[in-house]
Amino acid sequence: MGPTTRAYVSDQSPQKSVGFFAGLWWASFILGRTIGPLLGTFIAQFWSFQYSFYGSALLSCATVVLILVSFPKGARRERTSVNIVSGLRSVLNVRSMGFLFMSALFAFMGVALIRSFLPLYASEEVKMSTFEVGVLISATSASQLIAMPALGWTSDRFGRKRMVLLGFVSASLAFLLFLFVGTSSQLLIVSVVVSVALSASSLLLLAVIPDVASESVYGKVVGVYGSFEDMGLILGPVVFGLIWSAYSPILIFVAGSITQVVGALFLLGVGRKRYRGG
Questions:
Q1: Is residue 166 a contact partner of residue 147, using CB atoms and an 8 Å limit?
Q2: What's the CA angle centered on 229, arms 227 and 234, to 5 degrees?
Q3: Secondary structure of residue 47 in the 3-state scheme
Q4: pLDDT tens digits, the chain, 278 residues: what are they?
């Protein structure tokens, strides 16, 4: 749903306002992630987890009806033959692009850690109730909703790459704060701090692409970039799950800190020369 809805927003937006409407899309996305955990855990705690999934299914059906009834059709595009393998190879052969993609992979490993294991850690290690876990997850999303406009404004004025690097460093240090968490309120504060830092390193990283890729190859680069985001979301739960089960739950946050350091190192290798295809 993510890539297709973002492409749809781009198609339907006025050319001079794509950034504005893309920002609204992100705000809507994060707002849903803020409300969802509260609603889902409320239902789970007072009825059962099974009913949370039923509610999610109903919302999905309502969304389908909304799309079919109210959304205008996207513009018809001429079909062209594209060699995906050669296109992928041409992008990955550019050293600066490779560094950017690897940076995305490690950034989203950190995102996967918060999405996958923070609820589990809060429930099993800090002994928070089901609804308290929902409040925790919603608070992390709400903090991103509040912080993103400020982060975007700052990155436009002081440099996107510089802001993303600051996000990596901040996220790395913030992950280590989990080592000192002992109460639910402390976990809430640290989780919000980490989520805001991850917003700078992961969500703003996408904004670096126009600085390193020309407009003619932007779509191809974004496509490959998205694949590395997904790889981070796939690898993260596996790696951190192994660390949790083989060593200790608290060590996953140390590992998360390391992923952000590695992501920052890869980003340092991203040059200013724009990729123009080939």
A1: no
A2: 90
A3: coil
A4: 665 666 666 566 665 655 566 667 777 777 887 788 778 888 887 788 888 888 888 888 988 888 888 777 655 554 444 444 555 555 555 677 788 889 999 999 999 999 899 999 998 999 888 888 888 888 888 887 777 777 777 776 777 788 889 999 999 999 999 999 989 999 999 999 998 898 888 877 877 777 776 666 666 777 778 888 889 999 999 999 999 999 999 999 999 999 999 999 999 988 666 555 55
In angstroms, the Cα distances linking 160 to 90, 111, 166, 193, 207 are 25, 19, 10, 20, 7
Residue 178 φ/ψ, nearest 5 degrees: -60, -25
* Radius of gyration of the chain, Cα coordinates, nearest whole angstrom: 20
Q: If one looks up domain 85-278 in CATH, what number appears?
A: 1.20.1250.20
Q: Where are the domains of the chain?
A: 1-73, 85-278
* Measured distance CA(94)–CA(99) in Å, rounded: 9
